[in-house]
Specification:
single chain, Multidrug-efflux Transporter Regulator, Chain: A, Domain 2, about 70% helix
Length: about 140
């Protein structure tokens, strides 16, 4: 018989805490094994692999809904659909990176202005943020 784990061992093996495991079970991302009469639930190595997959997918930026979609495709026959989900996530990441590059350039310019603004009363960074606040109203 294959090795079976308690929920505590499952958590240690997968790097996921017990409350998160229970949350995933409530969300339908991880099946809850049957409890034998008078006993405790035992998890299989497949549960460890599934939890590791969820953790890795989240680390790549996939939401739990997206993870759920990917898990539904795990039989390997739906690679095109998995590619669609991955491509959509990649586009989102690239958009965020472009936005962050714009923010980086703007902040670098303002910090540079602050550096050159020695001894003056008005700080360019603070003034720009105040202008942005007024424009947002």
């Amino acid at each position: 018989m294959a090795e079976r784990f308690t929920i505590g061992v499952l958590g240690r093996e997968s790097g996921v805490n017990i409350e998160t495991i229970r949350f995933y079970q409530r969300r339908g991302l991880l099946e809850e094994p049957e409890r034998p009469p008078g006993g405790i639930r035992r998890y299989a190595p497949t549960h460890v692999r599934r939890l590791r997959f969820i953790r890795k997918a989240q680390a790549l930026g996939f939401s739990l809904d997206e993870v759920s979609e990917l898990l539904a495709l795990e039989d390997g026959r739906h690679c095109g659909e998995a590619e669609r989900i991955g491509s959509a996530k990649l586009a989102t990441v690239r958009d965020r990176m472009a936005q962050l590059r714009k923010v980086e350039r703007a902040l670098a310019m303002l910090v540079n202005r602050c550096h050159r603004n020695v001894g003056k009363v008005c700080c360019p960074l603070i003034a720009a943020l105040e202008r942005a606040e007024r424009n947002d109203r």
